[in-house]
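Subject: ABC transporter permease structure
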Amino acid sequence: MTSTTIDTAAGTEADAPAAARSGRWRAFVLRRLATIAGGLVFLLVITFLMIHLVPGDPVRASLGLNVSPEVVAARRAQLHLDRPLWVQFWYYVRDLAHFKFGTSIQTGEPVDQLIRNRLTATVQLAVAAMALVLVISLLLGMCFGWLTAGGRRRRTELGFNLVSGTVTAVPDFLTGTLLVVVFALGTHWFPASGRQGPQSMVLPALALALPPAFFLARVVRIETVKVLEQDYIRTAKANQLPTVRLFVRHVAPNVLAQSLTVAGLALGGLVGGSVVIENIFAWPGIGTAIVPAITGHDYPVVQACILVLGLIILLVNALVDVVLVALNPRMTALKEY
């Protein structure tokens, strides 16, 4: 056998694992895209049926009881509610494909314009809250993981679990109210409501971040204790590797990879929880649009808000899955797909 033949055979064998990994990646990404598509179809069906499952006539409820039948009929025709159900669904999907969410029944404003005006505020609040979640959870979790590793300081561990469990169990609206009373009305350090500048984002972001941050901190502490018990960590300690370097190079990457799944779920929860927090702090996001729309029977706005928030959650969860596999290519989830 010539050297050329040997080199070719070796190259083929080397390319085989790479091709297999590439195939698994494609299957993994396609599976995630299919999940997003399935979730989107579910959202479309639910938001479409919502207007038909509400007791009574939603158009008359939104326009009021003193409106003439002609006005009600014209509005029903405008919303295609006078057509068969399958025709209504076709119009609904067709309009959404062209990013047309209809017109607000209450204000007459195009719903897509309303969403664009408020989506930025909601995303800013969610991103700021997620940054706080990661910072607080990683610092607290790794710090208390270091303190309680090896079964040390049992009282410290119990105290941490008690405090973190209590903060996690407190509802968002109560956390937001307490922050307003203490830091806005009491100390006047931060504004109580509105979106006037960076300072006005602190309290709503903190109220949104605290429960998931302390929940994730418990996960991080457990993972930190597990990592610190590994043999290579003991070897690094025996070689007198500085503590900061040990955490930055060895502990933090492993803890982050294991905790990222929970962080992704927390981010999805932040998007949903922002509805409550935005109304407490009068933050001009999607949350402050959906609540008046529900009470005012403004169903085009409600449908659009639910669709947008649901799509954000689907995309975030899919992105977290991809990042998680990228950080740890040996995950069994990737092998399954």
